[in-house]
Amino acid sequence: MRRPITKLKSPAAATNSQRESSRRTTPQLPEGRVRPIACLRVPNFPWQVEVLRKPELHDHSAIVAGNALDLSEDLTNMPSGPGLGQASKAAKNSLSARVVLAASPDLTDVMPGMSIIEATSRHKGVLIIEADTALYALMFDEIIQNLEHIVPDIEAAAPGLAYLGIWGLEGLYGDDAHVVRLLAGAVDDFDIRIGVGDNKWLAYAASLLSRSNSGRKITGEPGRFLDKFPVDSLPVPYSLIKRLHAFGLTTMGHIADIPRGPMEAQFGQSGGAAWELANGIDNRPLMPKRSVLGVSEHLDFPDPTVSMAAIVTALESLLGRAYGRPQFIRRFARQANIQSQVFQHAPWTMRVSFKDPAGSKHQALFAIKSKLDMTKIPGPLEDMRITLSGITGEAGRQESMWKEVKRDTDLQETISQLRSRLRIAPPIYQVKELEPWSRIPERRYALVQLSSCSSDEETVKVD
Questions:
Q1: CA Rg, the chain, in Å?
Q2: Is 234 in the same domain as 264?
Q3: Which of 16, 53, 339, 362 has the fewest CB atoms within 10 Å, i.e. is most exposed?
């Protein structure tokens, strides 16, 4: 059992001189080498998306609930550990694993990461909204695409949170203030906050103090700026924040008063990461992700439906609109993502990866219907959104110049698709010679069942 820290003292016992002597400052780069980072944050992003979709929620107290996430992994670079993967999978659907992802602004004492049990005990009868993570990711991807027209280096850390490398943009847009105005103007329909600092954490902290659709930049000593910040703003698990409060550590200044060693001994590696952040130290690099070109189409059903005919018709209509876009001229898609809101049920999603890139709505629909036949619809669908991604300029398949080979290849592809759809070997046979010289007719020819793999051929002799 881990021994408690004996050197943790009440924050009130620390003097100003002790505080200044114990605090490390962020290493400063030589002049001209500072690379400022901007943090664009959409507070309560899942809640804002839900209000955009259903404006009547604006006047209700509600909580967006989802599965628990390990927020400390990005800071500590530690995986869950051997043997923990199966345990976390088993507990994924348990009630204790359900946490708050976002809440309406009136629920000021409900924090992201708080368990649903704790949140509902504070606010009985509050409306619980099941998180539509696929929709949140899709909406945030659209925001990132708009920002890429201004800043090339963007790291989408999570839906509603992005870091942008704004160094070297002075010649294009002017100083950081002009860049912030451009970033704010590129995001419509959302209430955003922008912060600018020398690292990710300082930029994030600055965004916490910025006003609606505006920005703030940290200048001067970061320790003084962070001194009064509450520990609730740390990107660490909610359980660690509760433990910090139990020790009387309620601000960044309280954590900075303690040496790193005792913090790590008591709170583990996440405690060491919290100590670094409290001192303005963040060595995480900006990791821009390559944007993936995608085309999305959406429609609403007149009434919630479970009719497969209506669903297939909707898919055909959406695919026709998607493949009619200019982006699909002589291009192919490798994957389709389908999202739907389900009446009185959690949102439903389905991902279909095409064996061969689909260059038309008929090819894509065939593959989607094959998987849809094996999928159970959880309830009446209220709407449908399909996103085609992995768009490429080539089909990724080389045709043969010989007609016989091309014919056999097309036949094998058809059989493979039928096998995937029927989930059994398709009853297609070919007559082949075995012993044409035999006096017994049954030995001369045989029926050979065709398969996508020659090793799976089944021989059935002709009677």
A1: 29
A2: yes
A3: 16
One-letter identity of residue 354 = F
8 located within any domain: no
The partner residues of 429 in beta bridges, in order of sequence, read 449
- Summarised one tens digit per residue, pLDDT across range 53-112 is 888 888 888 999 887 654 444 554 433 333 333 333 433 444 446 888 888 888 888 888
Who wins on pLDDT, 15 or 138?
Answer: 138
String of DSSP letters for 150-192: T-S-EEEEETTEEEEE-TT-HHHH-SHHHHHHHHHHT--SS--
What order of strands is seen across the sheet that includes strand 445-449?
429-433, 445-449, 458-461
Distance of CA 57 to the CA centre of its chain: 24
CB 149 within 8 A of CB 137: no
The total of structural domains in the chain comes to 3
Give the relative orientation of helices 133-147 and 45-53 as an angle to the nearest 10 degrees. Answer: 100
* Closest of 235, 276, 237, 275 to residue 255, by C-alpha: 275
CATH number at residue 378: 3.30.1490.100
Confidence of residue 41 (pLDDT cuts 50, 70, 90): very high
Domain end (from 247, 272, 290): 290
**Are 349 and 220 found together in one domain?**
no
Phi-psi region of 240 (alpha: psi -120 to 50; beta: other; left: phi over 0): alpha
Continuous segment of H or E residues that includes residue 101: strand 98-103
pLDDT tens per residue, range 387-433: 888 787 765 555 666 676 677 777 777 776 676 666 677 778 878 77
| Residues 150, 230 within the same domain | yes
Task: Tell whether 395 is covered by a domain.
Answer: no
Distance CA 455, CA 453 (A): 5
Asked whether residue 56 is domain-assigned, the answer is yes
Same domain (yes/no): 268, 325: no
pTM of the predicted structure, to 2 decimals: 0.61
CA angle 346-347-348, nearest 5°? Answer: 115
In DSSP terms, 446 is beta-bridged to 432, 461
Residues 304 and 382 sit within 8 Å (Cβ to Cβ): yes
CA 343 to chain centre: 24
Could you tell me if residue 176 is inside a domain? yes
User: Is the separation of the CB atoms in 304 and 281 below 8 Å?
Assistant: no
Select from 389, 415, 438 the last residue of a domain: 389
Contact 196, 38 (CB under 8 A): yes
Distance CA 53, CA 44 (A): 14
> How many Cβ atoms are within 10 Å of 246's Cβ, its own excluded?
8
Q: Provide the 8-state DSSP code for 286.
A: P
